[in-house]
Design goal:
Layout: H1 9-19, H2 24-28, H3 34-41, H4 49-62, H5 70-74, H6 77-93, H7 99-115, H8 120-136, H9 140-156, H10 160-176, H11 180-193, H12 199-215, H13 219-229, H14 236-252, H15 256-273, H16 276-292, H17 296-309, H18 316-329, H19 333-350, H20 355-371, H21 375-387, H22 393-406, H23 408-425
Helix pairs in contact: 6-7, 6-8, 7-8, 8-9, 8-10, 9-10, 10-11, 10-12, 11-12, 12-13, 13-14, 14-15, 14-16, 15-16, 16-17, 17-18, 18-19, 18-20, 19-20, 20-21, 20-22, 22-23
């Protein structure tokens, strides 16, 4: 009845009595004196289990829609706070998509952590949820901080399984930050902790090592780790993730025929399951495969199929960016610009944290504007790169080269700006 409130046991009894329109006389009937009820409600007398049973009976005589249990009456403030964290806050955080809303609720949870005795299991789950949220929203440093807090809790309470899981999560973040050596060390540390041979932990370690080696362009090593776990993955989504990465690695090794065969198998399964997200993703992968094979016609056909099946608008800005790359290769600059501008618009509206994609979109737009000698839009995109706080060093290099002959003053300006950026990074 008080799912989102924490209050002393006596206060809770008093509030419950008021909600049910009961007098102290009615609540005390056949149980205890009115004075006992008054002491209870003012938190001057401890509630015993025996008395709680009787109070629940009298409450339920008045309550028509809600059953009041003895356990509910006996819950102290710490118990109530733990229930709010576990049943309300964490479950809500798992569904939230907007960063501001997420952080407001996370602040509420951390306030409860400071004020009440929250069990380690709930703390670990909270920080794991927060780390995953920030990771999925490209806020890698915030994600890492959530991992750090969660890892400390897991170590302090001796939870080896969660300790290993947090090391894996830290490794995943470091892969995204291109800190590959640190990621490898963290995965090896998780492997040492897994002395109880937990299959799920082993799967996570191997899969993340496969991701790491793929990012390091060590595709054979990536395939080796995927082979280690292909027979222990029994979850369909995870199996599709594994098969997709397997096909990606084959593609990077230029084993295009084998890679396409894997993608076609994935697409067939996705269509049977009517999994629109997986259908869209697989068409995107097929488009990239044919792009690498210099088969632009098929690449365009598959990326359009991906966009058509992307009903949830998941990574649609990324798909549009890739479609633009195909049109650019075909020297259809008008079409390329259309897709790039739409991708940028979507990124600004819903995906601002994905700075790498935004940087790539602006860079490609500037390259097209350079081809077209469109200085107005070059200036516009150069300003946009600053507004959106992306890394614009490569953009400046292109502008230095472009203006070297056309406008020496501007070339010098961008050159000096670039020097200042580098000096600032180096703390000169």
């Amino acid at each position: 009845m008080f799912d989102n409130q924490v209050m002393p046991i006596g206060t809770k009894i008093k509030e419950l009595r008021k909600i049910l329109n009961m007098t102290q006389v009615e609540l005390a009937e056949g149980i205890c004196s009115i004075n006992n009820i008054s002491l209870l409600e003012n938190n001057k007398q401890k509630l015993t289990y025996k008395l709680a049973v009787r109070l629940a009976t009298n409450f339920n005589k008045k309550s028509k829609n809600t059953l009041i249990t003895t356990e509910e009456l006996m819950r102290d403030e710490d118990d109530q706070a733990n229930i709010i964290i576990e049943n309300n806050i964490i479950s809500t955080l798992e569904k939230i998509k907007i960063i501001k809303s997420f952080e407001e609720m996370l602040d509420e949870a951390e306030w409860l952590l400071k004020k009440y005795n929250i069990i380690d299991k709930n703390k670990i789950k909270l920080y794991n949820t927060a780390s995953n949220f920030y990771y999925n929203n490209y806020s890698y440093y915030k994600s890492y901080e959530m991992c750090r807090i969660g890892l400390t809790i897991a170590i302090n309470c001796g939870n080896k399984l969660e300790e290993a899981n947090f090391y894996i999560s830290k490794a995943r973040i470091n892969v995204a930050l291109k800190k590959y050596l640190e990621a490898l060390q963290q995965l090896e540390h998780a492997e040492k902790i897994n002395d109880f041979d937990n299959d799920e932990l082993f799967r996570r370690i191997c899969f993340n090592k496969a991701v790491l080696y793929k990012k390091m362009n060590k595709f054979a090593e990536s395939l080796e780790y995927l082979d280690k776990i292909k027979n222990i993955v029994n979850d369909q989504k995870r199996m599709m993730d594994l098969k997709t990465m397997y096909a990606n690695c084959l593609e990077c090794l230029q084993e295009y025929e084998k890679s396409e065969k894997e993608y076609i198998e994935i697409l067939d399964i996705a269509m049977k399951l009517n999994n629109q997200d997986l259908i869209a993703l697989t068409y995107r992968n097929l488009s990239e495969l044919h792009f690498n094979m210099k088969n632009n016609k098929n690449a365009l056909m598959f990326i359009n199929a991906s966009l058509e099946n992307n009903h949830n608008n998941s990574h649609v800005n990324d798909d549009m960016f890739f479609a633009a790359k195909i049109y650019k290769r075909l020297e259809k600059y008008s079409e390329a610009k259309k897709y790039l501008l739409r991708a940028l618009e979507i990124s600004e509206e819903t995906d601002r944290e994905n700075s790498e994609l935004i940087e790539n979109i602006i860079y490609e737009l500037i390259l097209i504007y350079i081809i077209e000698n469109d200085e107005d839009n070059i200036n516009l995109m150069e300003q946009k790169s600053k507004e959106l706080n992306v890394d614009y060093r490569l953009i400046y290099l292109e502008l230095i080269k472009y203006y070297r002959i056309k406008n020496e003053e501007k070339s010098i300006y961008f050159n000096n700006e670039l020097i200042e950026i580098i000096k600032k990074e180096k703390n000169f």
